[in-house]
Amino acid sequence: MALTNFASLTSNQLTAWSRDFWRVARNMSFVNQFAGTGQNAMVQRVTELTKSDKGTKAVITLLADMTGDGITGDFTLEGNEEALRAYDITIELDQLRFANRVAGRLADQKSVVNFREQSRDALAYAMADRMDQLAFLTLAGVAYTHKNNGGLRTVVGGAVNGQELVDLEYASDVSAPTGDRHRRWDATSGLVAGDTTAVAAVDKMSYECIVELKAFAKDNYLRGIRGSGGDEVFHLFVTPQQMKALKLDTDFITNVRNAGVRGPSNSLFSGSSSLMVDGIMVHEFRHVFNTSGAATGTSSNAGAAGYKWGADANIVGGRALFCGAQSLAMADIGLPEVVEDTFDYGNQQGISIGKIFGMRKPKYNSDISGSVQDFGVVALDTAQ
How confident is the model at residue 256 (pLDDT cuts 50, 70, 90)? Predict the structure, then answer.
């Protein structure tokens, strides 16, 4: 009996399958809904490589605000023009691959089709989920050696072998929040400089915290995303526990009760994972960095990687992310590559998917502080 044509897709069929896979993966990805190709997107996606004298690379450009006051009246403008200050952000690229294999011969064409469909969904979810994890670790400035729940990822082999996310080319570009873009909520003092060792159990997310954070971001010239009416839009990403603390905050409840719509669509009752607070879109997402999975330590472990926060390394904390335009740069180059193969004389079948992409948190030279700062994101640490 002839074997099934498992690994005999034509190039056109593989292209169609790749497009279908990427459509499913993008729909599954949380961060993808905030992506766009222009400078007005929270996640600026680069889909083409730029050629330069240094080779071909993925680049986004940040434009700093003009600082001059212009020329008044009929005084000469020529020769007094102000040069645009542009910062090119290069995004390193690497490939991430997943595969699955089924033991035992696929007896008929229906089995082949079912396996392809099941593999597509499983591989698409795996790719989308890891891209979401990487995006929120990058925004939070947390090394890829960490899980998004604060625990340390399992080290495989102890050498660079491609089995760890930290082996990605752009892993070394992950950087901690810069000084003017890192805040901590203190239940007594309000918004203060970021310091994970100073987080206390009472420092929970609140309505007041969000109002102060918005004012801080605007005072420090964080550029929002321009809406259709010209208003600036910002997004705040929080953990499920931070969202819970916000919804239980008395100031939040009072404001929603008085200003919100009546009935089941009110934010107090609708159960939505996104809501509007003081003009800020607040989104709950499981991959926002937190320390629920980190180890509990003592004062000697305070501030150490893989441990909880606080002076005694015993506080479960979360790093909320207040994001404006160009918070994250993402290189998304080409379609995924799909490969079907057979093993053990055709008795086992497998499908692999590989995608080339990269991520980087843009930085610029701030006119406010005179130092290099994260361009579009403020990290806010609270207790959970």
Answer: confident
